Amino acid sequence: MKIAVLGSGRIGGALAKKWARAGHTITFGSRDPDKPELKELLKTLGGGATATNAGAAIHASEVVLFAIPGATMAESIIEHAKVLDGKILIDAANNMAGHTLNSFATFAEQTPKAQVFRAFNNYGWEDFENADFAGGPADLFYCGPDGSARATVEHLIQEVGLSPLYIGGVEHVDLVDAVLRLWITLIRERNMGRHLAFKVLTDAPSSQAG
Ligand SMILES: NC(=O)c1ccc[n+]([C@@H]2O[C@H](COP(=O)([O-])OP(=O)(O)OC[C@H]3O[C@@H](n4cnc5c(N)ncnc54)[C@H](OP(=O)(O)O)[C@@H]3O)[C@@H](O)[C@H]2O)c1
Fold this sequence. Notes:
The protein has eight helices and eight strands. The strands form two sheets. Strands 3-2-1-4-5-6 form a six-stranded parallel sheet. A two-stranded parallel sheet has the order 7-8. Strand 2, helix 2 and strand 3 form a beta-alpha-beta unit. It is α/β, with parallel strands linked by helices. The structure holds NADP nicotinamide-adenine-dinucleotide phosphate. The site of NADP nicotinamide-adenine-dinucleotide phosphate has 21 residues, from helix 1.
């Protein structure tokens, strides 16, 4: 699968590493595709990964991961709305100072034909870089439209080493974001460390879920 990763920092880098290893073609959409840190990152990802500007990366890809600062999301979505519309979009960005953490309102307005998912926003990058936890794979809570695009996002979550836990449609985005608030509270106020993730325990067979 061709994946555009907007933002070559901690989240973009950690997820791109896992997806490149799984055989996907990664194109970073960067403000500076020639910067030394990005060149170093590309070397670790092998031949399947390249870098260009955001517009070209989106154009070349079927799936787009947003891993840029939350405060820059609206501007980026508006700038690239035409080429984003119709694609599978994953919003991992958190606008910590904004009215909401996610950018779903802007997506709904600007890219009405896109299939937008909220995923990879509610754990730290360390949990994606190293998803091995004692007690089995942790759950990754996510939401978005049901259907074939959901299956694609589930695969991408599994390839990071986590177990996808579908909360439901886009109306559940605030609940997915609430998981981040719990995660932050446990690491900051309870000092539980950033290598922390959640798992749902149930007697229901997994076939009954989702
Ligand atoms: N850090 C975490 O553990 C974590 C966890 C979950 C979600 N998130 C969210 O994921 C997003 C990325 O977080 P991160 O920790 O990966 O951040 P980061 O390490 O600072 O990387 C962000 C990347 O975004 C790109 N970018 C585009 N516009 C930018 C601007 N105006 N200022 C700075 N960078 C800009 C840069 O890549 P180029 O220079 O290549 O353009 C930069 O490397 C944020 O929205 C954050 O809230 C972070």
